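Thread amino acids onto this structure.
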């Protein structure tokens, strides 16, 4: 009997979110009522008030969202 595996590839989506707080190396955004951290490289003062983030999961369900690191 052969064992087969199924690889699931999630679609990467983009959304613009308001930045609530800036920290060294991350910003805080709000998704579905939850405060979530998005990581980045660079100076925290260079982050605008709204950021375009890439993520996988469902933006309507914060428990499924995984952000990609900002560049």
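Threaded sequence (71 positions):
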């Amino acid at each position: 009997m052969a064992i087969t595996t199924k690889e699931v590839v999630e679609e990467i989506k983009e959304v613009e979110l308001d930045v609530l707080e800036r920290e060294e190396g991350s910003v805080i955004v709000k998704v579905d009522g939850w405060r979530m951290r998005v990581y980045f490289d660079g100076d925290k003062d260079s982050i605008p008030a709204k950021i375009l983030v890439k993520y996988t999961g469902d933006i309507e369900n914060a428990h499924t969202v995984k952000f990609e690191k900002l560049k």
